[in-house]
Amino acid sequence: MDGIVTALTTPVRDDFLDRFRRKPRPDYRKKLTDSAPPPAPVAGVDTFFPMFPGVEPLAIGRTAFQSVAVAALQAMDRVHRCEGRAAEAAISLGQRDKLRHLIGEMEATRRMLRGMLSPQGAAMLERNASASVKETPEPSWWFALCEALHVLEEGASGIQSIAAAQSREHAGHTLSDFVASLLQRHYQALFVEAEQWMS
User: Fold this and answer.
1) What is the pTM of this model?
2) Are 99 and 87 in contact (CB under 8 A)?
3) In the predicted model, is pLDDT for residue 36 greater than 80?
């Protein structure tokens, strides 16, 4: 247990932030042509709530779990901003409605996770939020869509790495696995929009 706590406190937080620094945007035109279809849809946010009654309350309060929750919230906060900009740039009612649904789902999950934060976890989140980079709006629907895809892809990958560092019995693994699946499902939904835009 001491090894898990050590791996998921400061090192996890720093490594996670490194993954989310701005990187060159992938060429989604090429990716739509070359890549395999995104992962199949997974269960929605409602299925997460029954998972935690079986987890000891003490496990949720531990530093390891709190570090995972903070990392997940950081990823979802950035996705939420990007999906919001994409919704603002949407050029059809259907695009806007789909993004509003995704944004609502993300907001519900963020509220749930914030409710699980201990005072220590809330302090960690606040420290990292104050160091975040202010992002400017994207100039068009296509660029906003690509930015959201890029952030979702990075977020899912980062959270999966966190899940892989924990045993399946660990409460943090349950949380990180769920958040990774949520981000993958949002990625798939927006990937479909990109395919339709390219067709």
Assistant:
1) 0.72
2) yes
3) no
